[in-house]
Amino acid sequence: MSKSIISIGGRVFQSFLSQLTSDLTKPNAKFIRDFLCGVLFSDNLVLTHVAAKVPCASKLTAIAKRFRRQLANRRSYLEQLWSNYLSLVRRRLDMDSLFIVDLSDLAKPYAKKMENLAWVRDGDKDCLVPGYWCMEVYCLDKKEDIIWPVILWPYSLEADGQLSENAQILHILSQLDEFFGEGFGIYVCDRGFDRLSLIEPFLASKRHFIIRQRGDRMVVLDNGVRIVLSDLVEHLFAQSGDWLVYKKVYLSDNPKPLYVVAYRTAGYNKPVILLTDMVAEDSEMALQIRNRFTHRWGCETSVEFLKSRIGLERFAVRRYKSMQRLIFLAGLAMGFLSYLQCRCKDIRQKVNDPLRYSREPKSFWFYRLLIALQDALFSQAKRSLSAWCRPPP
């Protein structure tokens, strides 16, 4: 079984690399190949630990030094690399594909000498610590329940030339618009994106969106009445008696009609309030919007996987630009696991061993895939050392 998983993974990895590194120079292509291989079989992003997993005859320190030099290379190859990756992902999407956008923290509470450290809120400890913010964009496969990471991009508000968080978000989304085309996909965002400075550019760029609301926004009804969203939703629930309600609304200074969709969830006192530019004139349309928003949970499980299994917060790179490229490439390692599920249809059956690979959440296959690949590699290493443990003649 382990030999089969390694051989299948190796063939798919070569196919993934051939598309990812097309039009890159040989040194850059070699770096991408070695780095992604090391990340997949390591549990952190410390360069010496990643280099230790690279099957190369070079010295460990030489490989780590090459990684450090490539990450700091001023001749950026990331644009071509990202374009190749998006071309690969584009085949698995359509006009109604969901793009899940979120902001996460990369907490570095003990870091002292990393460039442009800023204060971020650690989501686990709910306190301010030194670190970086990271913008995450994921998309859902059009045919299967596969999550594709689109980009992971860390940033610091202390960095030179960094205007604001809103500017960073809109810059990355505008790059996606340039590649996929205006109006492609539906962007699903949590309450952190409930900002007029983001909603108005979304409307101006014809970007379809579903954004969860805090409930304190003032909206305008068809009859000209102004009302706070939370009060409107409370009134709609009292009027209908249903668990799902919807209503056409307008922003104060924008004539474009928007729709509020709200629903109650078991275990929560307050309803979930959504604002979207998509039409919700009946219960079926409102339910479709609600179902699309519930896919946002895949973003939470993805970043948990990246932090726990890839080691997104466990890195030791001081330079700011090198750190950004390091996190970006770590996202591509998860992209390979998405590609593996896409190309090998029966890979999930191969790793569906409840005793070995189901220790993590059953609904999220990335854990089991990565554990299976790592276990297969280590089991082959054990077999090669079995002769050491035989009794002497």
Q: List the helices and strands in order.
A: HHHHHEEEEHEHEEEHEEEHHHHH
What's the story with the biggest beta sheet?
Answer: 9 strands, mixed
pLDDT < 50 stretches: none
User: How would you sum up the global shape?
Assistant: globular
Compute the separation of the termini in Å.
Answer: 31 Å
Portion in strands: 15-25%
Number of strands: 11
Mean pLDDT comes to 88
Structural class, from secondary structure content? alpha+beta
| Rg | 23 Å
What is the number of helical segments per DSSP (H or I, 4+ residues)?
13
Give the proportion of residues in helices.
Answer: 40-55%
Can you give a write-up of this model?
There is one protein chain. By secondary structure, the protein is α+β, with helices and mostly antiparallel strands. It has a domain at 194-295. The chain is built from 13 helices and eleven strands. Strands 1, 2, 3, 4, 5, 6, 9, 10 and 11 form a nine-stranded mixed β-sheet that branches. It has a two-stranded antiparallel ribbon with strand order 7-8. β3 (127-140) and β4 form a beta hairpin. The protein is globular and about 85 Å long. The model has no long low-confidence stretch (mean pLDDT 88).
Question: Any descriptors?
Answer:
two-stranded antiparallel ribbon, globular, 393 residues, alpha+beta, 9-stranded mixed beta sheet
